[in-house]
Amino acid sequence: MNTMKIIEDIHIHTNVSKDSKQDPEAYVKEAIERKLQYLGFSDHLDLDPLDKDYEYYRYEDARSDFEFLSGKYGKEINLLFGVEVTFQTGLEKSILENTENKGYDYMIGSVHRLEGFTIAGTSGIPYFEGKDEKTAYTAYFEEMKRMVGFNYFPIVGHFDVIKRFGVNFYGKFDAYKYESIIREIFRMLVKQGNVIELNSSGLRQPPKEPYPSAEVLKMYAEEGGTEVVIGSDAHTLKQFGQGLPETILYAQKIFDFNVVVFIKGMKISLGKISEFVNTY
Ligand SMILES: [Zn+2]
Ligand SMILES: [Zn+2]
Questions:
Q1: From ligand 2's centre to the CA of 280, what distance in Å?
Q2: Residue from 185, 235, 230 nearest 205 by CA
């Protein structure tokens, strides 16, 4: 039997994200109950004026909620102020202007949009219609490569989220078809000291496997990637922490990754996955 210590969840959404109505305090209380050491808020920052979620994020509200909760619970848990930024080629300047000097502990960079479709959400499903798999997925990884090349985000979110709805069109995601670009991205990412995220949300979504898949994690390790952060990408309290034990065990079979966290932009090592899993 395995027991698992979940040390961190750095990917959660609250009511300052358009797609969540969750009051942030409920997460904090639950995280303390579950004895997490680090809880990071990572609401969506979407800067494409054509995106329906554009300008929804309210920095001041996110900040003041965070300050309030830190004051109230800071002795019981380490709370972190993060943000999940939607990267899009052409928006680099706006991303810099909207995130510099904002006091974020960390930033997760995610590719959510392609050709005007929010491919990581149900509204983006038409992106796949009439497209062959290679075209649909290659465009995603090309955008991911540009994001990592931008070298601004210490954390890459849900590395293969293109499969979220892609699996409904093309079946199980086969990372080996995109091996050369995936490895190229990882070489760049590792050299820059960035990390990827073990994101459990794919387990509750159509792929029924974490982001990234086992094959992708293997490539990451083979290209020298040793560090990960852990997140459930919860948009509700019910989703909070869902699938994390399975995701961590899944990753451990591939490589004994080092779990890290970012505090005021500094990367801190929390220990190897195996240290959090007790098998008896
Ligand atoms: Zn995301
Ligand atoms: Zn998210």
A1: 34
A2: 235
pLDDT at 280 exceeding the cut of 60: no
126/117 Cα distance (integer angstroms): 8
Is the link from the previous residue into 154 a cis peptide, with omega within 30 of 0? no
State in Å: Cα 221 to ligand 2 middle: 23
Q: What is the DSSP letter of 209?
A: S
Alpha-carbon gap, residue 57 to 15, rounded angstroms: 9
Residue (of 75, 139, 130, 64) closest to 103 by Cα position: 64
Give distance in angstroms: CA of 202 to centre of ligand 1.
11
CATH code for the structural domain at 7-279: 3.20.20.140
For residue 184, give the amino acid letter.
Answer: E
| Tokens standing for residue 223 | 């290209």
The residues spanned by each domain of the chain are 7-279
Q: How far is the CA of 45 from the centre of ligand 2 (A)?
A: 10
* pLDDT tens-digit readout, 69-98: 999 999 999 999 999 999 999 999 999 999
Q: Which parts of 13-86 are beta strand (E)?
A: 38-45, 78-86
pLDDT at 19: 85
Summarize pLDDT for 20-53 with one digit per residue, the tens. 899 999 999 999 999 999 999 999 999 999 988 8
Please give the distance, rounded to the nearest whole angstrom, from the Cα atom of residue 110 to the centre of ligand 1: 6
Say how many Å lie between the CA of residue 234 and the centre of ligand 1: 10
- The one-letter amino acid code at 162 reads I
pTM above 0.90, yes or no: yes
